[in-house]
Amino acid sequence: MSATTLHAPPLSRTRLGLRALMGAAVVILAAFPLLNMLPQDNVLHVSDFLVSVSGKWICYAILALSLDLAWGYAGILSLGHGAFFALGGYAMGMHLMRLIGPRGVYGHPTLPDFMVFLGYQELPWYWLGFQSFPFAMLMVLLVPGVLALVLGWLCFRSRITGVYLSIITQAMTYALMLAFFRNDMGFGGNNGFTDFKELLGMPLNTGAARATLFYASLLTLVGCYLFCLWMTGTKYGRVLTAIRDAENRVRFLGYDTTSHKLFAFVASAMMAGLAGALYVPQVGIINPGEFSPGNSIEAVIWVAVGGRGTLVGAVLGAFSVNGLKTWLTSAAPDLWLFVLGALFVAVTLFLPKGLVGLIQGRGK
Amino acid sequence: MRGRRLYLDGVSVVFDGFRALNNLALVVEPGEMRAVIGPNGAGKTTMMDVITGKTRPTSGVVTFGDLDLTRMDEASIANLGIGRKFQKPTVFDALTVFENLELALKAPRGPVACLRWHLAGAGRTRIEEVAAEIGLTERAHDRAGILSHGQKQWLEIGMMLMQDPDLMLVDEPVAGMTDAETEHTARLLARIAGRHSVVVVEHDLEFVRALGCKVTVLHEGTLLSEGSIDHVQNDPRVVEVYLGR
Amino acid sequence: MTRIIALLLLMAAAALPARAQDAFLDALPGLGGNFTAQAEAVDRLGAAGDPRALPVLRALSDGRLVKLSDGTLLVRDGAAFTNAATGAAATPAEADTQRISINNRVRVALRGALGRLQIISPDAGERLAAAEGIFRSRSADNVGLLETALARETVPRIRDQIALALAVSRLVSADPAAKMAGITALGGSASPEARSLLLESRAANPDLAGQIDAAIADIDRRLAIRRVAETAFQGLSLGSVLLLAALGLAVTFGVMGVINMAHGEFVMLGAYTTVIVQDLLRGHPTLAPWSLPLAIPAAFLVTAAIGAAMERGLVRHLYGRPLETLLMTFGVGMMIQQAVRLVFGAQNREVISPPWMQGTMLLPFDIPVTANRLWILCFSLVVFLLIVAAIRFTRFGLEMRAVTQRRPIAAAMGIRTGRVDALTFAFGSGIAGIAGVALSQIDNVSPNLGTGYIIDSFLVVVFGGVGSLAGTLIAAFGLGVINKMLEPWAGAVLAKVFVLVAVMVFIQRRPRGLFPQKGRAAEA
């Protein structure tokens, strides 16, 4: 190295290690549906349950990634990311409801069952177009994106940050939950949407559909991860971290922080919407409970446990916390909420960098 | 001579009945170096806040060339060519020295531009120059968070240089520096002046003397005296303020 | 008690003129005759105004009046019989009793007669019901009866109702002067029914249209005032709930700047403390009725102790890191909630309201006000004043203000800042506990009790201006009233959504709330 020429240092060993971990996890997950096809008595057989539950976790991991982009990188602690997830899910749910067509209980050619039940004569205008898959996918991205754009623009422009922003996002998802519980919103009220039949011509309750959705989710996760990795590796990513740590200082450098935060927040909301859209056909139901503030906060703890500000951490956190939840809610259901609460306390007090921090600590 | 003229007239800032600035007037010509001194609470930092858009004046005129600064936000004012070094050094701890300088480098500031940004040869050379100038070449790839206080001060001056502003506002650049560092800073600032207008706020009168420029004395938010360092040091009003009544 | 009533009855009976007694006995046998005779007898009994007729007619109406073969009429009450004429007990042979049936015509007559008779019943509730019944029957024949009843009546509320019934009877009478009096009297009421009666009679009395319209306008004005007052009370009531829930937070978040997401759980713990105090005192002869007031200090101490422990053990390690504090306290809240769920079960616990908190009272313009809501409204104001006083006038309040404004200087002056932090946090938590006592009276006491309040409380504190207790007060009542104003046309849920959105937008316009803290300290 000459005296004045500065070369970027090579990636640290822990960074590479974390990326390898991510790669390994993806490969192992990718094998699940294949191993599912092995005979039941084979040691490598993966049960239907594990395939479907890990399909859900992959969607949660995408949500965690999106939250990490907003919180870990841009410093926007959203306590309402579940709302973007749910909106994406509802957009997908509307598509799935339209695809049921005359196969509903009431056999109405266009109206979903709940609308027939509530005495609707025709589809509300905002249901039009959802029979088309490309349109529905557009809405999956657009609806959370526009909500994030409006809310973010209002908040960031008025320089609402920190706790205030968190509470406002929480109030947002709470308000949406109350609104979606109403029958006259035209979204099925309390019961939401369920009894889906097919997606893209593929019947939903088959192993093939499960495997397809699983791979679609996994691909999306990898895509989102690479997208975030690219994004955070550019100067834009460094501007975001700078905003997170000292927003005022960034302004004095001439950056319009509002537009930078808005960009990240909208991208993050769209990713969350995508996660929700993949989640709904896998679990077969979407209802207003998905908007409950508790869901959003749980997503925050995934990121915190994994290690915010690192993409692998968010994914790791989503898998580990949800794995723990799945195991504990069947082994000792009463304990789960204690453990979740204790996780909040323990991570904030003792493990601010999460599991990834532990790994990095050992690497050094 | 490049640059614009900074012009403040009749500027007042009132916080909840307390007048932080009171009918302040100040003119800094392009390329001029100006030292601003005054006891604690004289309104020096508030004056900088007003110029950089952090605080809106309750009344008065603040212009840079023919632009009205009171109508602009911090980012636009910074992009206009007004750089600021804060009293308490604020660098981005999570980023390396190199990355801190890169962020400050004059370049398109929008999100999309940042995403597509690629550091070209000229920009890299500029960063290397500034890193050398502030003596942080060796530490270019260390995270800024682990620098010493003095080094953070230098880094922040470096970031201001990267912005290549027409006007630099430098708030207490030598606080917490050793004598050698202070001397170095004085030389650096003297070199910068001429290319840029510089306003230095400082307590250290020896340092101000070393700058050898016109001095403005503030007291209770208003202009008390202006002139050479010898002139203001002999001004009876200044003596009274500094030595008590 | 029953004896006294019986005595009063006897005295009332004795006071009536002998002619009336005769009328009662004269008319009575008619009830055993054919339908025409029955109807006539019922009318006569009703007009006679004799209290003895009341149980007999009621028995007839309910199918409990029986006739013996000798024509004696008996009132059956379960297995017991009494003589309709004398009131003496009787033991007839079962085979001999014949139930007296009635037809619709008799039923109509009965309704009128019973209505009239009840108006002089010794029971206040019956008199009120009778007045309402007569009001609805709108017959001109009742003017005389009502005038008598009005003269005897002493209970103001029943007097009003009788006057209303009288006004209606006059309205339908033939006498123009009485009609005018009726219209004027109805115009003085605030009854929607009176309004529709006037509207109906407008067609029948074109010559009085002007007066009737004026009377209707009068009623409309009163109804509007009542609606506004009703909404205002409901809004203030909701506001008092918001205020109670938010006050503790106004101290921990507003004054200390510490965000406590377990605040709702402290409210819930306060409510459960109320349940425990009540269970402990159940059966205690002197203390049991006072369990609710006694729960107030108990809840304060319990939640304050937990708050102090939480501050010393956890929160203080995260000062200056609000987002971490938010997450950590949320976790604590989750654990508290689950612990309560495991100990007390997930279902709602019953809290008994003391008698003085039950029932409804009427304010002027017939605005119904439930007692517990009124108590909670007053209670919230008292708690508010006590907090303001504690912060203004006590040594602790002084130290608290000193520490929050300039911590290092307060420490330099010998204030133990750590202790003040813990006490302030405990104080705020204790207030949340007190809120729980009050909320246990109107909300379901379940482990989820607090969840619903946390977002509302934060919005109230932020809306009012962080650090301003007066702002919290105004924000709470303001939001409560606005919410209730929106409800009639938006529905309860949508009104709440609107308020949430409105507050969010408001905070964006004025991030420091209605009453911002001023000065350089607030610039950050």
Describe the structure.
Chain A has 364 residues and is an all-alpha fold. Chain A has a domain at 55-291. In chain A, 69% of the residues lie in helices and 2% in strands. Chain A contains 13 helices and four strands. In chain A, helix 3 runs antiparallel to helix 5 (133-157). Chain B is α/β, with parallel strands linked by helices and 245 residues long. Chain B has ten helices and ten strands. A six-stranded mixed sheet of chain B has the order 6-7-8-3-9-10, sandwiched between helices. Chain B starts with 5 loop residues before the first strand and ends with a helix. The model of chain B has no long low-confidence stretch (mean pLDDT 83). Chain C has a five-stranded antiparallel sheet. Chain C is elongated, with a radius of gyration of 32 Å. In chain C, helix 4 (53-62) packs antiparallel against helix 5 and helix 16 crosses helix 18. Chains in contact: A-B, A-C, B-C. Chain A binds chain C through residues 77, 154-155, 157-160, 162-164, 166-168, 170-172, 174-175, 178-179, 181-182, 293, 297, 300-301, 304, 334, 337-338, 340-345, 347-349, 352, and chain C through 259, 314, 317-318, 322-328, 330-335, 337-339, 341-342, 455, 458-459, 462, 491, 493-494, 496-497, 500-501, 503-505, 507-509, 511. Chain C: It is found in: Cell membrane. Chain C: The chain crosses the membrane at residues 236-259, 290-310, 322-340, 374-398, 419-438, 458-482, 489-507. Chain C: This is Urea ABC transporter permease subunit UrtB. Chain C: Residues 1-20 form the signal peptide.
Overall, the morphology of chain C is elongated
Structural class assignment of chain C: mainly alpha
Q: What distance separates the N and C termini of chain A?
A: 24 Å
Question: What is the tally of helical segments of chain A?
Answer: 13
Tally of helical runs of chain C: 21
Q: Given the helix and strand composition of chain A, which structural class is it? A: mainly alpha
When the domains of chain C are counted, the total is 2
Average pLDDT over all residues of chain A: 87
Unreliable runs of chain C, pLDDT <50, ≥5 residues? 13-20, 518-524
CATH architecture name of the largest domain in chain C: Orthogonal Bundle
Keywords (chain C): Amino-acid transport, Cell membrane, Membrane, Signal, Transmembrane, Transmembrane helix, Transport
Pfam family, one (chain C): BPD_transp_2
Subcellular location (chain C): Cell membrane
Family (chain C): Belongs to the binding-protein-dependent transport system permease family. LivHM subfamily.
